[in-house]
Here is the input.
Amino acid sequence: MSHPQGTPGTARTPDGRELFYQRLPGPEGTPTVVFESGLAASRSFWGLVQPAVSGFATSVAYDRSGLGRSPASPGPRDLDTLAADLNALLDHLGAGPFVLVGHSWGGPVIRLATAARPDRIAGVVLVDATDELCGPLFTEQVRKLERPAQRMTVLLARLRLLGLAYRRATAVLPPESRADIRREGFTVAVTKVRAAELAAVPSGLNSLRDNPPDLTGIPVTTISGALSSPGMPRGTRAAVTESHRRRALVTEGGRHVLAPRSGHLVPLTDAELIAEEVQRILTSRQGPRRTR
Here is the structure.
């Protein structure tokens, strides 16, 4: 197969939009692992993880509306809409079972999608996910830091320099995925999608806090980056990791794992670890809560 993330396809949402995805087949009859990317990130961020799971499962990575090769949508970017789009993709892919893997803001998306249709979900892996159990996320200080960061992102995109900021991080991707992300992932149009998704974060967090998705009976693994990184200094890193630990503790069959080589971009630095945790869920759906 020429592309390490598999063959292309499109899934249609109930309102007529198309979501682009790539499907990498695994052994016949195995569950399908579906990857949900973080804030304004495309399917290409999973370019190392998909091949790592192909030995034991089929995998699908897709682009939300306006990202990668999915056409833009004038509609909202709130969590409910993103989760509904993910469930539309799952409807297209078949009956399941599915393991959902979400990075960063993709974590809340897969939790909501799972709660809506738990019957077809075999497990959930939250990769350095945004979590409402992290108190600092609700502070005005965080909002104030996000605004100049977004303005800088837009400026760099207009100057065609945004890709340079991520060149070192994305250099580890397979050449095909790296070319895709550098061509599709750092445009001015993408920064507009990022702004819309970012604007929906406060209301999304409040909604999660007021009405936590019910994942009873679903195995959940939370993965935390072990290192501080740009945008996530030591104090923030500690608070985020603690929220992941608490998520595992309050979840039936929860498990918390540290990614030793990673800051926030775990799919680019600890791909094999993510694959191992997916495989663990598939081979042992339930187990005692553990931390490593």
Notes: Residues 140-158 form the longest helix (19 residues). Strands lie at 7-12, 18-24, 32-36, 58-62, 98-103, 121-127, 220-225, 255-259, 290-291.
